[in-house]
Amino acid sequence: MKGILKEHILPAFMILIGAACAAFSLECFLIPNTILDGGVTGISMMINYVSGVPLSILIIVINIPFFIVGYRALGKRFLFNGILSMAAFAIFLDLFGPVPSVTDSELLAVVFGGVLLGVGVGTVLRQGGCLDGTEIAAMLLSKKSSVSTGQIIFAINIVIYVTAGILFGWDRAMLSLLTYFITFKLIDIVEEGMEQAKAAMIITEHADELAAEIYQRLGRTCTFISAEGLVSGSRKTVLYCVITRVEVRELKRIISNADVSAFVTISEVSEIIGNHIKKIDAIDEAADVE
Questions:
Q1: Given CA atoms 61, 160, 54, 17 in this order, what sign does their dihedral have?
Q2: Residue 39: which residues within 8 A CB-CB, separation 6 or more?
Q3: DSSP one-letter string for 199-217
Q4: CB of 39 within 8 A of CB of 133?
Q5: In what order do the strands lie in the sheet containing 223-228?
Q6: Quick one: how far is CA 203 from the chain centroid?
Q7: Cα–Cα distance measured from residue 18 to residue 27, given in angstroms and rounded to the nearest whole number
Q8: pLDDT values of the chain reduced to their tens digit, one per residue, 290 residues
Q9: According to DSSP H, which parts of the chain are helical?
Q10: Which of 4, 93, 136, 242 pairs as cysteine with 70 (C-beta 3.0–4.6 A)?
Q11: Could you give the CA distance from residue 187 to residue 185 in angstroms, rounded to a whole number?
Q12: How far apart are CA 122 and CA 171, in angstroms?
């Protein structure tokens, strides 16, 4: 019962809290002051302003293709958490829709709306959910190019804010961009300093099986480093791999299922120089070099 509570019930509850926080920020701070979020949510807000189609419906419809792709890349658990996140987000948007705006001050709307949105999105991400398909698309695109996930997301949002400037005025675009920076920073704080990239070091006695599972599930290759325990004297292998923040929870689940005795550390990566090995036939070549 304790395992079910920790693994399923508590994460689902926190996803609901995060979705409610994000929806409240949009409906009670940002939307009344014509301030846009980035990504799919920002696109949905622009279409909503122009066409009048409910925001909750637009967010769900536009995110569907991204979540289908995310399911193929990250598995059933991601799909479940994603559906829960999106459904809760849409419901709370409708619930908070009739609530009056908290403030007419654009500055207060940017600051407090950005903070609440960052806390909400960060909480959902920390529990393995996702409110915006842009991050999924950026993560998958980064695997096939030398451009980082953060750079792709930033480029997409710049296009969105330029479009917002054309449609609603450049002051709206600049306020939206400022909100985006606040939100992005708060996501990092909620995620305990999580950056776009994370480095995982896994000490294990089942390196081959674990590395194959990580590659199959996440498409990430591992570097093998030979090691020896100080006390036990037994030979071990350290797996080193770089992943995105969306993949951290899935990596933990892979390790937990494959090797409960593994010792794992996950740290921040401030910069990546060089290319990851992305092809399965390159794994053996990398192992030979090492």
A1: positive
A2: 132, 133, 134, 135, 153, 156, 157, 160
A3: EEEEEES-HHHHHHHHHHH
A4: yes
A5: 223-228, 235-244, 197-204, 263-268
A6: 26
A7: 14
A8: 666 666 678 888 999 999 999 999 999 999 999 898 888 888 999 999 888 899 999 999 998 888 888 777 777 777 888 889 989 999 999 999 899 998 889 999 999 999 999 899 888 887 878 888 887 777 777 667 766 666 777 788 888 889 989 988 899 999 999 998 888 878 777 765 444 578 899 998 888 999 999 998 888 889 999 888 777 677 889 999 988 777 888 888 888 888 778 889 988 776 666 655 444 444 444 344 34
A9: 2-4, 10-25, 39-51, 55-74, 76-96, 106-126, 133-143, 149-168, 170-190, 207-218, 248-258, 283-289
A10: 136
A11: 5
A12: 27
Q: Is 237 helix (H, G, I), strand (E, B) or coil?
A: strand
Residue 100 has, within 13 A of its CA and on its CB side, a CA count of 3
Structure tokens at 83: 């559906």
Q: pTM above 0.90?
A: no
CA 144 vs. chain centroid, Å, equals 18
Distance of CA 53 to the CA centre of its chain: 26
Quote the DSSP letter at residue 98. T
Token couple for 270: 């401030």
Report whether 161 contacts 36 (CB < 8 A): yes
